[in-house]
Design brief:
Elements: E1 2-8, E2 11-17, E3 28-36, E4 39-49, E5 54-55, E6 60-61, H1 68-92, H2 98-106, H3 113-126, H4 130-147, H5 159-172, H6 177-196, H7 224-232, H8 240-253, H9 259-262, E7 274-278, E8 285-289, H10 292-299, H11 323-347, H12 356-369, H13 374-381, H14 386-403
Helix pairs in contact: 1-2, 3-4, 8-10, 8-11, 8-12, 12-14, 13-14
Length: about 400
């Protein structure tokens, strides 16, 4: 079936659902057909559909197709591009041919995947997304190891390539399932970006046929009794261990604040009752009322501090430090704290492997156990979506289920 979309001075651009061609799955190809001066050219969109998936009247993929929205968006984009090129070339040369229009349309260079990856990395750095930038650079390095620094084209990356890369990350680099997931997820994002931008055809995206594996992780949190053991530890006053213990407990009591925000807290951010901060990760402004136990901790460090001084004197950092300097200082300090938390856990006879992130899990679980509304917990923790917070609700519900087992004793 042919659906005429544009007609101008003996040239036309149309969609052509070619029922005369059929593949082994019973699908027909979709083309853009260009006619100029009675000469016809077909440009494959790389899309194959069954007759019942194509709406003849509306000229679009039916909603019953699982990727209908994305396919229709892609089709509209390619048609618009064809129309623009056809009109522009006709305006310049009334005798232009359908063949030249096709060449111009297909001449949009995809460039290499390697270059596309590097440009994405440069964009992250330019926009101060340092954490994501450094992770991206690490993933570029892994991919270069796998390919021996070969420059990759988009068409080089197919399902077989992804399967081989997955094995390389697992067997050669010893990456966990979730680490592998993160490494391949960035490749999927770039393919999706390239598809949206019209750089590659939708149907060439290997992630339409390749699923990234992942596994659920257990969120570790401390019980009320374990927190009390941490509090009761007899540590040398003014020692590094005491400071790191206090920072951990402060986060357990004060909304599970991210370590990146805790380490940057300055006295000017503290009103005496509330901490007012712009979170490092989401750049969202939040005000946290400090509960009594957290107030006791914070007052230990007041002394004769200046408003610009850090509340917890862990990092040595200027207020005007660059984003990259800040990120590196936070990473180094967090690693130092986490190392001490292992020692503190042994002293408190806690077997769980804890880190600063454990304090977030601990606060969230305790808050829900004490009856705080889920949306409040989500807001205070700075979650972008309440779905993230619902994980903690499941933990609490699971504990309640276990508690009911007393009736089976």
């Amino acid at each position: 079936m042919l659906y005429l979309l544009y007609l101008y001075a003996m040239s036309s651009v149309a969609l052509n659902f070619r029922t005369s061609k059929i593949n082994k799955d019973g699908q027909h190809p979709l083309y853009i057909r260009i006619i100029k001066n009675r000469k016809t050219q077909f440009i494959s969109l790389g899309i194959h559909l069954k007759p019942e998936e194509w709406d003849e009247k509306k000229n679009k993929v039916k909603s019953k197709h699982p990727n209908s929205a994305r396919l229709n968006s892609y089709i509209a984009q390619k048609l618009s591009e064809a129309l623009d090129i056809s009109f522009a070339m006709h305006s310049k040369d009334i005798n232009t041919t359908s063949s030249k229009i096709k060449e111009k349309l297909k001449g949009k260079s995809a460039g290499s995947f390697t270059d596309f990856f590097e440009k994405h990395s440069d964009w992250l750095l330019a926009n101060d997304k340092i954490s994501t930038y450094l992770k991206t650079k690490a993933n570029i390095s892994k991919l270069n190891q796998f390919t021996n620094n070969r420059k990759l084209q988009f068409e080089d990356i197919d399902v077989e390539f992804l399967k081989s890369y997955e094995l390389f990350l697992s067997n050669k680099l010893g990456n966990s399932i979730n680490t592998i997931h993160s490494s391949i997820k960035i490749i999927r994002k770039l393919f999706n970006d390239a598809s949206r931008e019209g750089i590659i055809e939708f149907s060439t995206n290997p992630f339409l046929r390749f699923k990234i594996k992942t596994e659920k992780t257990t969120k570790i949190y401390l019980t009320e009794e374990e927190i009390e053991r941490f509090e009761m530890l007899e540590l040398t006053k003014g020692s590094r261990l005491e400071l790191h213990r206090d920072v951990f407990l402060f986060a357990c009591f004060a909304a599970g604040m991210r370590v990146s925000d805790l380490l940057q807290l300055r006295w000017k951010d503290f009103s005496g009752t509330n901490l007012n901060i712009i979170t490092q990760k989401t750049r969202e402004h939040i005000s946290v009322k400090i509960p009594d136990k957290a107030l006791i901790i914070i007052e230990k460090y007041r002394g004769s501090r200046q408003p610009s001084d850090l509340i917890f004197p862990i990092m040595k950092l200027r207020e005007d430090s660059s984003t990259l300097e800040l990120y590196r200082a936070i990473s180094a300090s967090t690693a130092y704290i986490n190392k001490d938390l292992k020692e503190l856990a042994k002293l408190a006879k806690i077997e769980a492997h804890i880190s600063m992130h454990t304090s977030r899990h601990t606060w969230a679980t305790r808050a829900l156990q004490k009856g705080m509304r889920l949306e409040y917990v989500s807001k205070l923790m700075g979650h972008a979506s309440i779905k993230t917070t619902q994980i903690y609700a499941k933990i609490v519900n699971s504990e309640l289920d276990k508690a009911m087992e007393v009736f089976n004793d």
